[in-house]
Amino acid sequence: MTNNHDNKKHPSYTIAPCSVYIENVPVFLKELSRIGLKTGYHIVLVRTYYIAGLRHIETAITHALRSFSTKPIAKSLEVEVLLFTAATRQTGQIHAFGVQKGENMCYICLISRLGETQSQPFGLLKELQVDFDTVMDPHDTTNYAENDEIRLSFFKEQFNITSEELTVMGKDKLEDLVCERVALLFLTK
Predict the structure, then answer these.
(1) CATH number, position 112
(2) Structural domains in the chain (count)
(3) Has this prediction a pTM greater than 0.85?
(4) Do the strands 102-112 and 41-47 form a parallel or antiparallel pair, or are they unpaired?
(5) How far apart are the first and last CA of the chain?
């Protein structure tokens, strides 16, 4: 679990690994939003398979918060976070990052709603079948084999990373390249 409680300019957030089985995605998201409103949080779940590492999510949240306080791309902070996670302005390109029907291994992002009192959402989230006992180190960027060519192809296509860049930088710098693309979205919006 990671926390950022030292930034006075933007709301604090917490990121934690979790898993959840979802039968009906729209119903789940509506309930997630209700829990967020009740407890004073924006709640975003991002599927781990499509995350290059914890800094990838932290960078996306930071830029989404900055964007949302000035001129956001989306109407909600939750969608803004997913757009920055995917490094795109197109909501049609964030589907892979969000939860799907069935079993989901995720990072849950709890972002404080400014001006609201926060209360613990974990009990309500557990009622929604969100399992925080997931065995996953959020700082481990090797959750998936480095030779997972399907996942690597996804990152190359989604974030416009060339084979040449990977050769020069090395596959171990994939997270750096992804974070760079996330930051570029903020600069080019």
Answers:
(1) 3.30.2380.10
(2) 1
(3) yes
(4) antiparallel
(5) 30
Our CA angle for 58, 49, 20, nearest 5°, is 90
Q: What is the pLDDT of residues 110-144, one digit of tens each?
A: 999 988 999 999 999 999 999 987 655 544 544 45
Look up residue 154 and give its two tokens: 């996804």
pLDDT digits (tens, 9 = 90+) for 78-93: 999 999 999 999 999 9
The CA distance from 56 to 38, in Å, is 28
Q: What is the 3-state secondary structure (H, E, C) of the chain?
A: CEEECCCCCCCCEEEEEEEEEECCHHHHHHHHHHHHHHHCEEEEEEEHHHCCCHHHHHHHHHHHHHHHCCCCCCCCHHHHHHHHHHCCCCHHHCHHHCCCCEEEEEEEEEEECCCCCCCCCHHHHHHCCEECCCCCCCCCCCCCCCCCHHHHHHHHHHCCCCHHHHHHHCHHHHHHHHHHHHHHHHHHC
Residue 165: which domain range?
2-188
